Amino acid sequence: MTGTTVNLSVMGADDAGESALTYTWATTGTPPAAVTFSANASNAAKATVASFSAAGTYSFAVTLKDAGKLTASSQLSLTVSPTLTSLNVLPASVNVSANGTQQFSATGKDQFGTPLATPSNLAWAASGGSISSSGNFVAPGSASAPITITAKSGSSLSASATVTVGTITPIAGCSATPGTWQNITPPQLNSALWCSPAWADQSPNPPVPNLGCYQPGRTNPITGQLATYGANAFVVDPVNHGTVYLGTSSMGMWKTTNCGSTWSPLTTGPSAGKNADAITRGRNWTMVIDPSDPQVLYTVAGYADGGIFKSSNGGVDWAQILPANIMSATGNGFMEKITLDLSDPKHKHLLASFHTPCTGTPLPGAPVASDGTWACLAESTDAGVTWSLTTNAFPWNGTDGPGQTMVDAKTWFYGTNGPNGLWRTTTGGVSANGAPAWKLVQPGNANGSVYVARDGSFYAGGGNGNVIHSVDGITWSTIPNSAVGGSLNGSTPMVDTGAILFTTTNGTGTQNPYWSAPTKTYPNPAAPFTQMSTPSMVAGGAYMDYDPAFGIVYSSNMLGGFWRYIPK
Description:
Blueprint (H helix, E strand, L loop, with lengths): L4 E5 L12 E7 L6 E3 L9 E6 L3 E10 L5 E10 L5 E5 L2 E5 L3 E3 L1 E5 L5 E2 L6 E4 L3 E2 L4 E3 L8 E7 L3 E10 L14 E3 L10 E2 L30 E2 L3 E6 L7 E5 L5 E3 L7 E2 L10 H6 L5 E3 L7 E3 L9 E3 L7 E2 L3 H6 L5 E6 L9 E5 L21 E5 L7 E4 L11 E4 L5 E4 L6 E4 L13 E4 L4 E6 L5 E4 L5 E4 L6 E3 L14 E3 L3 E5 L9 E5 L11 E2 L11 E5 L4 E5 L5 E4 L3
Parallel strand pairs: 8-16, 18-19
Antiparallel strand pairs: 1-4, 2-5, 3-4, 5-6, 7-10, 9-14, 10-11, 12-15, 13-14, 15-16, 17-46, 20-21, 21-22, 22-23, 24-25, 25-26, 26-27, 28-29, 29-30, 30-31, 32-33, 33-34, 34-35, 36-37, 37-38, 38-39, 40-41, 41-42, 42-43, 44-45, 45-46
């Protein structure tokens, strides 16, 4: 069968008349998911409707019982086949410059909302410009009315996306020689005086003058060195081309409107607004921007003020939005990573992980550590107005770097950034009948969060520093001769342009820490990654992103500063 329900019927006979019989239905063995019956344990249940919540093979037994408690039973089995029922085109809405390109992808779900592999029989169409059979769109040569991109499977199933085509106004600071790496760290931060913070007794509060590096945010009065983790998370404004917001460690948030050629402080100086000092005190190791309203930003102030901070005016004023009950259950809101569901057209669905285990009563199906703490995530569906907890894949165990990735409203990944593997849920972390809501899809080392590529496939760091790849998020393969570093506070050290995948290895004293490969060749062991030649760098990248308007790859390298690269 290919639906979500099936009619089941049985008929017995009894010397007191059939109406004296009671019919009871049940699943046997280990069913793929729970089954409900419209009628059961009654005479009316001789004709019932079984409702399913997942595909798979089910075994049933029906027991007939008369007034004298004599019984008889019968068995049957049936297979519920996963059937493509819905499509989703990604990205759902995007701005593309005249003559620019954009790779579209389509993901499918079965009748239960479970993701399926990308349909092989997709037909792509565009109401303007052109689009290839693989979903690669080429915009017309001038600005136009919004263009509709349609992916169709079969005769009736389709989904669409919208492209806004405009002329990108040239910005002088956004041009550079292709194939060169440029250090665009805000010069006001004087990165030559950065040093890696010390947490030991040589840097007490207040500090005792010595030649060492102090605790984060403190300056050595003798050497002038600032204890900092340097450049941290950043976001590229998808609407205001050339604009980038850069978070730091104890040096505030910065903004450029010309691709990093010049910078202005947002949270320090006379223009700083409400709670700007909190953002500056901490470490902004995760950041999210609303792609339809880029005035809305989310970040954290790690190692300083707990919780999640939101700005609705482009980073000037900030408000802490995590409620007290979640703060108290999570080490005063000691955050790890914030993510936004890009499949939500209103961009109000947020998910946040923690740099600490959760305390209190665990939710059903939540993994519980030996000390009674459990694995949780905080979720909001109204842009941070209200929050609730849901289960996570694995309890936080003191490591840096684990983090979640949202594919859609219910399908999420969680990378443990260590030997505990890569996990996936298709229920938004909600348990069914107390069973775990997460499944291990890649055992062993899983470095960094999952990266969703522009073609809809998935990349992550695997064992031995190699990149792993998956089309459906379930089956993963290692890409030979590849290289990627681990995650730092949930960062994703890779990005793609639609044609090229870039990865970075991190750590201090790194030489030539970037690698690249054509995305369309994978998984293909005959096309190894190429190590890129770069200037001398203090450290490799931790965070990467791409600006399609100007074709710029950005990389935040922490103590190594902030860099940009225009592919050849």
